[in-house]
Predict the 3D structure of the following.
Amino acid sequence: MSRMLSIRFAGQEINATVHPNAENSIAPVLAFLQPHFSVGPVDPAAAYGLPLRISPLSAWTRPSGEPQQTMVRKGRSAATHLWGDRWQIDGWTVIEITSSRTVFELADDGSEVHAYISDTSRYHLSDFLREAMWELAAVGGGTFIHAASVSNSRAAVALVGDKGAGKTTTALDLVQSGADFYSGDILFTNADASRVYSYPDYPGVCWGTIRANPELLKAALKLGLTPSPDDGVKVLLPHDIYWTALGVRKSAPPLPLGAIIIADVSAPGPARIEPAAPRWDLLEKLDRRGSDPGEGWEPFLDETGRRYARPGSEPPTNSVHPDLPWYTRLGRGRPPLEEIARFLDKTSPSVKKKPDGRS
């Protein structure tokens, strides 16, 4: 008998009906999502989100006729673009991704999707669910920003910076000094940052950072990864690497945002954390890196956003300007444990003031 699951994020919902023969294939997908999305049973009568049926690939029948090629995801270079075969059949777009033995049947009006999965579908089903939820959340209201984050259980600390500034290094310094892990590279926030949500991803970590953390290096070697002599080369690690390799806890979303740290590990002098002036450019809206318009599942996601996105308490924003303390993490090495402990102890949830100045 099939079971029905609700997958929720920031007030948005996808309702998945899972065929018994697809349970084993979907298990790693749910393990990837659950630290960030809420996943649980749902009463069909109360379901309001995007309907998703998940079946084993063996139940799919390949359409007749020659398919067209379609871009499913645009990579950072042409060599990393992901392509699939596409058929248009009676109001449905059918996309087969042969590299992972995964098929998506997408209603052209955005009303529902049927995924056929195999034991190699983990990445592409996860990718689709992330992009669908991103679209729903972005249309519903709020902003995705490029930031790693940790927490002290009361509030999240966003770690921002230019490319290569040391966001991951700073996150590791904090979690190895008592902070909980929150999000690897992406945060979703409402307008005043009183609620921020972690987002599932695979952390990209430089080999220099990996080598500086023996337990992380041990885990990377165990995965069969070959170290690069270039410290700046990044490698994607498993989503749960911080708690499996380092024993770090993962805080559950949502949390208020308590502080923002600008990473700058190349600055001269010893490692330290100091107050800093805001850099609002580092909180600019982050766009979803999907495929080209009209390609892949982009048309379906456009229609789904209009049909199922629940509005939030604030309209969508292009930038975030929270009234929070800013800091900068400077220098190489690790800041003293006492300094990190003091910083985490004083970081508290932001308190939004009323127009008369009262909190």
Notes: Residues 143-284+319-346 form a domain with the Rossmann fold fold (CATH 3.40.50). The radius of gyration is 21 Å. Residues 353-359 have pLDDT under 50 and may be disordered.
